[in-house]
Amino acid sequence: MRRRINLNADLGESFGAWKMGSDDELLHIVGAANIACGFHAGDPLVMRRTVQQALAAGVSLGAHPSFPDLQGFGRRAMQLPAAELEAMLIYQIGALAGIARAEGGRLTHVKPHGALNNMACEDAALADSVVAAIRSFDPGLILLAPALSKLLLAGTAAGLQVAAEVFADRSYTDTGKLVPRSQPGAVLLSADACVEQVLRMLEADGIVSLGGELIHTEFHSICVHGDGPQAVATATAIRTALLGAGIRLVRLPEVL
């Protein structure tokens, strides 16, 4: 079992009068915050407040850009020309980087959100567009991408620093892909089940599928989703279990 790992969470996903998640509490559990940039959630004030809170908690800052889909929370598939998509990603990354700079911080990584992330994991051309946007803005940024994905491969091929992530609360197929949410068992609902999966993957040095298959793969970060009713309890249980196993929890740049 490895001796250090990063925990990340998608945060800053409130918007106007609408509140999502428990950012304050999660920022004292995780080591990396992926902050919504206004296209699927978030707004300038939420972005600034989340950056301030993340910096106060000593958490590394990541941009969490998406398709322009505020009504659908970025979960609807879209087909956009490569040039348009790249410009939208640069726009979002730049907005969060500017707020981070204004608050005395620095952006460390980018993690695409929702349908954009899922599609880029399967579509090499789309993955190349995501990577091109990140490189155009700052080739020193870390790409946080799902393990075994085409997005991860594209980032590596382009010379980006790439951190591979796995999900604490999602089941995997025998080929290492996420089980679709429409299928039974796709989402792990209890803290105990999430802790068991995380420890099993760390012990096995890879992904363990819903069917029991082991796929050896390196990973650097574990995503703990922050938008469910049990999010804080689950994240706390995972953190406690990892520390109890002697694993050091670090910020994202420190795990590479």
UniProtKB/TrEMBL annotation:
Gene3D superfamilies: Glycoside hydrolase/deacetylase (3.20.20.370). It comes from the Bacteria. The keyword ATP-binding applies. It holds the Pfam family LamB_YcsF. GO terms for molecular function: 5-oxoprolinase (ATP-hydrolyzing) activity; ATP binding. The keyword Nucleotide-binding applies. Its EC number is 3.5.2.9. GO terms for biological process: carbohydrate metabolic process. Keywords: ATP-binding, Hydrolase, Nucleotide-binding. It catalyses: 5-oxo-L-proline + ATP + 2 H2O = L-glutamate + ADP + phosphate + H(+). Forms a complex composed of PxpA, PxpB and PxpC. Belongs to the LamB/PxpA family. HAMAP family: PxpA. Catalyzes the cleavage of 5-oxoproline to form L-glutamate coupled to the hydrolysis of ATP to ADP and inorganic phosphate. This is 5-oxoprolinase subunit A. It comes from Candidatus Accumulibacter phosphatis.
